[in-house]
Amino acid sequence: MKLVKTPAFQYPFALAACLLLLQGCVVGPRYVAPVTQAPPAYKEVVPQSQQSSDGTTWMPATPQDATVRGNWWEIYQEPELNALEEKLNISNQNIAQSFQNFMAARAQVRQARAAYYPTVSVGPAYTRGRTSANTSETFPGVNLNSNDFSLPFDVSWEPDVWGRVRNTVRQYANAAQVSAADLANVRLTAQANLAVYYFEVRGQDSLLYLYQQTIEAYQKDLDLTHVRSRTGVDTEQSVAEAQLNLDTAIASATNLRIARAQFEHAIALLTGQAASSFSLPEQQLTKNVPAIPIGVPSQILERRPDIAAAERTMAEANALIGVETAAYYPTFTLGGDVGLQSAKIGNLFTWPSRFFSAGPSASEILFDGGLRRGLIAQYKAQYEADAAAYRQTVLTAFQQTEDYLASVRWLGQQRREQQDSIAAAQRYYDLSKIRYKTGVDNYLNVFTAQTSLLSNQQTAITLQVEQMTSSVQLIEALGGGWDTSQLPSEKAVARK
């Protein structure tokens, strides 16, 4: 049997091939997405049989498995709101900041992926030297000057034998997905705030219109009391009461403009505009709450970006455990130098000027005083904390959805009941005014009836605004038009 001797320069390459075969090994726990038991139905959904004939008792749209998609604000059929939302998506600075945070997180994935590949560096150098003539090594006639031209390439590669690099890439990819979900959550919050402020402005416009009509009516009553006072039918006290009612209404109308201006300024900020150059024309709130498709509770887990962010945070923490677990195992490095070296520049690029060296190295921590064990314990505890945060986020999502379902539902019923109160207050005012004009009662009864009617009318508008804003918050609680399919995949994040 003849033995064939393997050339020495082939040993590093044989070892590299063995290490490549070992790269399929990944240490650390395997991540399993959490399973959350969702309730079968929402408690606060109004059954069909309980919906009022006039539609003021709000009811979600059917079929029940339908969901809000895309530009959810278009469900309100408010062209001006649609335009503002489009402006917000482009110009809102909080969204822009979150987008750049996502870009930074995605760049970190590319940084982590760089560890898959070897590092190659080049360091060309030229050295001009002279040896001392007074040393024992020199001889007469020997040239004491020398040149050294070199063009070395250094190569170093650490094979990912235990999956440390893969877990690191996975950690940063999960972190990028968290950032993408945070971006979606910031966008949804800004969109919802804009819709809320828009309906608040329209509510203030409705109140201003109410007060304008009320001021006109109060002015007529004041004129009537003046006439009756001059003819001796009434007293100056009635004139003073009518004047008080009118002045109070005027002051209240002025106060409404403060809130309207502040909501208008908030809209300007959300849409990336200077408050000084932005204004909305006055327009009353005439729309009722549209039917909102809410789906089933289990869909919330796929539709809320904050839940997606919490789940991806768990995956990130799990990958970090794998990164630290790999520290228990030895690390292998393949390195080498190859290049050209010559004393004369003319010979530098000739075959005899070549040189190389290559060889593997390994390192293993023998004692670290419990550092690795402590780090793994820390990351496992962090994973459990993230799991608790995920469960809390899910429970909060269910709570918020039920809260706003109940709010929209009962506000609809309260609005219907408030209409009965307005009708009663209107009748009280009409009767008291007739009795005043016929001299049966004094103006005090009219004064009281006017105050009661205005208060009930104002309450009705306030309830309408509250119901509209609650419907916006309900859509936000349901995740808007977002779902986890819009979250970039781990591979997509790593490639970009």
Describe the structure.
With 496 residues, this protein is of the alpha+beta class. It has one domain (22-118, 159-329, 371-495): Up-down Bundle (Outer membrane efflux proteins (OEP)). Helix content is 56%, strand content 9%. The protein contains ten helices and five strands, in the order αααβββααααββααα. It has helices at 11-21, 79-91, 93-113, 164-230, 236-270, 300-303, 305-325, 371-437, 443-477, 490-495, and strands at 119-122, 125-130, 145-157, 331-342, 354-363. Strands 1, 2, 3, 4 and 5 form a five-stranded antiparallel β-sheet that branches. α4 (164-230) runs antiparallel to α5. The longest helix is centred in the middle third of the chain and has 67 residues, at 164-230. The chain is elongated and about 140 Å long. The two termini are 56 Å apart.
Characterize the largest beta sheet: strand count, sense, and whether it forms a barrel: 5 strands, antiparallel
Quickly name the level 1 CATH class: Mainly Alpha
**How many domains, as an integer?**
1
- The total strand number stands at 5
Q: Would you identify the CATH H-level superfamily?
A: Outer membrane efflux proteins (OEP)
Please state roughly what percent of the residues sit in beta strands, choosing from under 5%, 5-15%, 15-25%, 25-35%, 35-45% or over 45%. Answer: 5-15%
Euclidean distance between termini CA atoms: 56 Å
- The 3D shape can be described as elongated
Task: Assign the CATH architecture.
Answer: Up-down Bundle
Which class best fits the helix and strand makeup?
Answer: alpha+beta
Query: Helical region count?
Result: 10
Written as H for each helix and E for each strand, in order along the chain, the element string is: HHHEEEHHHHEEHHH
